[in-house]
Amino acid sequence: AKSDHRHSMQLFSAEMNRRAQERASLERALQQALSERSLTLHYQPQVLSSSPGTLHGVEALARWNHPQWGMVPPSQFIPVAEDAGLIHELTLWLLDEACRQLAAWRAAGHDVPCVAVNLSGRSFHRPEFSQEIGDALQRHGLRTSDVLLEITESVMMDARPVTLKNIEALHHQGFKLSLDDFGTGYSSLSYLHRLPISELKLDMAFVQDLTTSATARALTVSVLSIAHSLGMVVVAEGVETTGQQQWLQAHGCPVMQGYLFGKPLPPDEIEAWLCAQAP
Ligand code: C2E
Ligand code: CA
Ligand code: CA
Ligand code: CA
């Protein structure tokens, strides 16, 4: 038994070692991708419930196509970027790219109302963050209403003065904040009216349970009602079926996003999507 135990300890540390090496090589490759500017953005349509051919906006989502490993999902490389201190550079670069793309679409006559970008909570610890975001817009001649900033509940719960200062400075500049993955985190409703949130993104876990779970339906009804009374827009995420679409529309959800309307697409396919919807 004793030698069994020793054997499993050795396996355990071999596994730890393998994981640490995997992480280190992911980190090196990500660092390289950043310096070569080889990440890209895909854009997912967000449509009006009342008119699913009309854009509310598009969400910019990071993509990494590694020469050997192929597509690395953001759920894998964003946490690595956060731990390795690379997230800030990544965020500012992708923000700049999203702004450049929006300006290019408009110059080509495409009607894209705004682009939503995902911000990591880590970036809010930098005192200059709100200023850097404003600078990116200015470089591309955009206004604060052109870019929606998606943050998560962890940012809302972060009591650091520097985080609050950034949130207030962004609000003061005229930016709109969107609360991502709503309903999955701490879900304290008390900060909703204390902080300048103008949009809630209902997490896809709720949306995908709508047709099977009375609890998911009850929670969604109350989120829609709270948002409505606070003057916030709700975006339902992960809408995949017409059953979900019909339920959400009947219950007054104004904006939807999901595979039913469009997957995250490279910029040229967004243009094709727009042309296909044109009356
Ligand atoms: P998220 O911000 O909640 O983004 C929505 C995710 O749901 C995306 O996954 C999108 O492709 C996926 N999705 C959209 N519609 C559907 C649907 O109908 N069905 C299903 N099953 N999935 C759908 P993706 O692109 O893999 O991104 C995963 C997460 O990675 C994002 O979740 C976000 O938290 C993070 N992420 C992506 N890009 C960035 C970025 O540029 N910066 C930061 N900080 N995080 C990012
Ligand atoms: Ca998001
Ligand atoms: Ca989300
Ligand atoms: Ca998410």
TrEMBL record:
Record domain EAL: where: 23-278
Protein name: EAL domain-containing protein
